[in-house]
Amino acid sequence: MRKVATWCVSAAAAFAVAFGASAADLALYNGTPNDGWYDPAVVPVDVEYIVANVSGINEVVVFTDAEIDALAQWAEDNMNDGEPDIIWLPGVTPSTLYPNPNVEPDGSVAERWLESGNIFINVADWFSYTTYETGSRGADNGAAGAENILDLPGIIAFGDNTQITITDAGKQYLPSLGDTMITDRPVVRDAVVAPWEVAEVFGQNADGTMYDPVALRDTSSGGILALLNQANLSHAVDRGVLTVEFINNWLAAQGITTAVEPAGKLTTTWGALKK
Q: pTM for this one?
């Protein structure tokens, strides 16, 4: 089990660390999750852990449900800044990034984020399936959310209780996973078509047709979608650790983040963690 440092966080807590102009920026959505897929009490703990342990990031910003307009503006401001930046989602996608229910199937902030060469990391529930930003479930995008954003029909499956074997790449970059895990919403191999490609498979089912965790890359833009442990609570791994491993290990190997020791103190706005 991860040992989490206890922080005393105040509204004045802001610290700057310079990693160089080429380092990516990271936005964490500390929003209300689907509680069958991510414990609401654990999300802010994992967010805190990620902030404290992530490496090679220029700036970390945390947004709450009250700040989803600001998150969308942050995405707009970082779309064409000459570096691949990262948005982390706890299995829910704010309506300001992709208006639900599928109100903007083309040209959403989320779609343009990837088309501008940036990165989403999604853990827990199905990418862009629904929202909980009001504290209750919004109108579902359903499977069409991810399909519209990626222009990839059938990209995620209702693969309940899918047994996953961790690949050599998974053991190298995501060592906390061990040898096996279970996924409930895997990526379908044959649904990945140009301009998208499978950048890395960290875990797959027995016949290699379904993946989780996995990183997909848009070859036309360089945008990356990382889907890490899209599984319900009974199959959940430590998503804070998993996220840090992905950023510190795999993204660093791609040259997207810089390979430095965790800073512990990063430029950040704290949202709900201030309170």
A: 0.88
160: its two tokens: 């309940």
Looking at the domain 24-274, which fold is it? Rossmann fold (3.40.50)
Angstrom distance (rounded) from CA 167 to CA 215:
13
Q: For residue 46, count CB atoms less than 10 angstroms from its CB and return exposed for 0-12, middle for 13-18, buried for 19 or more.
A: buried
One DSSP character per residue, 121-187 reads EEESSPTTS---TTSS-----TTHHHHHHHT-TT-B---TTEEEEE-HHHHHH-GGG-SEEEESSPE
pLDDT, tens digit, 9 for 90 and up, residues 136-161: 999 999 999 999 999 999 999 999 99
DSSP 250: I
User: What are the sequence ranges of the domains in the chain?
Assistant: 24-274
Chain CA centroid to CA 49, Å:
14
Kindly report, residue by residue over 18-71, the tens digit of the pLDDT: 223 458 999 999 999 999 999 999 999 999 999 999 999 999 999 999 999 999
